Amino acid sequence: MNSESNLLKVSVREASGNIVDMTVRLYGPNTDYVINRERELQAIQYLSAAGFGAKLLGVFGNGMVQSFIYARTLSPADMRNPKLAAEIAKQLHKFHQVEIPGSKEPQLWNDIFKFYEQASNLKFDDSEKQQKYETISFEEVHSELVELKELTGHLDAPVVFAHNDLLSGNLMLNEDEEKLYFIDFEYGSYNYRGFDIGNHFNEYAGYDCDYSLYPNKDEQYHFFRHYIEPDRPDEVSAEDLDALYIETSCYTLASHLYWALWALIQAKMSPIEFDYLGYFFLRYGEYKRQKDKCLSLAHPYLSRLRSG
């Protein structure tokens, strides 16, 4: 959803007289509640070696130093540009090939249930916030999580090293070199392929959460073709497109639940002036609106798989 760091550009004059630009990232307060820094630092080394993001130059107590990327940050509207969408899909295909040592266990449900435990046991000093918080039925949220975990488990989605936060702010473009960069691997982990793609599609809605901007089926299939076969997008079978469409639709729901629960923790812990409590209701509301459509796609598909 949102970077949990402050970024500073630092220019250093070398002994030779050359000026070198670097980025200093300072972690925000209380971010360890939602981010596994050890996991992030390990991943950065391997992702950087594979050509992703800025180079890691050094680490200190509450941040890191990285090389400076000369590029502009994308806007949500940029992501729906067909040429850029194809390039993001190709890069994501390559990103998902990177091997990070250690456990390959997908982290989605571990993280979501960890968020749930924290989010369902909060107490707000602000009485208005506390009142709003008490309108949430955590029993209902829990049963939604259990149901969706079971449903997605039947999809057998491939497990890949996922970015997990591929919003426009974490995509940069150097237009002179036509080079696209993925940045900010704070939420990166082994995860389900469909979650990374569905989460990215949710970000088409932008910071205002205008879900009417969610990519339509044609736009999704354009992305899928370049993701599945970056070199031969026109050769992707209809069967593979349909399967990825259903997988992504179901994990889109998981993305709404993930960031909804994340937002409740932020409402309590984050010093940033943002209506995180309101954000919970936005994401949870969209989850409820999309749920039936997703289930109506998934159940017939899974029945065909079982009988086929």
From TrEMBL:
The enzyme class is transferase
- GO CC terms for this protein? cytoplasm
Q: What is its EC number?
A: 2.7.1.82
What family, per the record? Belongs to the choline/ethanolamine kinase family.
**Highest lineage ranks of the organism?**
Eukaryota, Viridiplantae, Streptophyta, Embryophyta, Tracheophyta
Q: What is this protein identified as?
A: ethanolamine kinase
Identify the InterPro entries for this entry: Kinase-like_dom_sf (IPR011009)
Enumerate the Pfam families for this protein.
Answer: Choline_kinase (PF01633)
Pathway this chain belongs to: Phospholipid metabolism; phosphatidylethanolamine biosynthesis; phosphatidylethanolamine from ethanolamine: step 1/3
What SUPFAM superfamilies does this protein map onto? Protein kinase-like (PK-like)
Q: Molecular function terms in GO for this entry?
A: ethanolamine kinase activity
UniProt record, GO biological process: phosphatidylethanolamine biosynthetic process
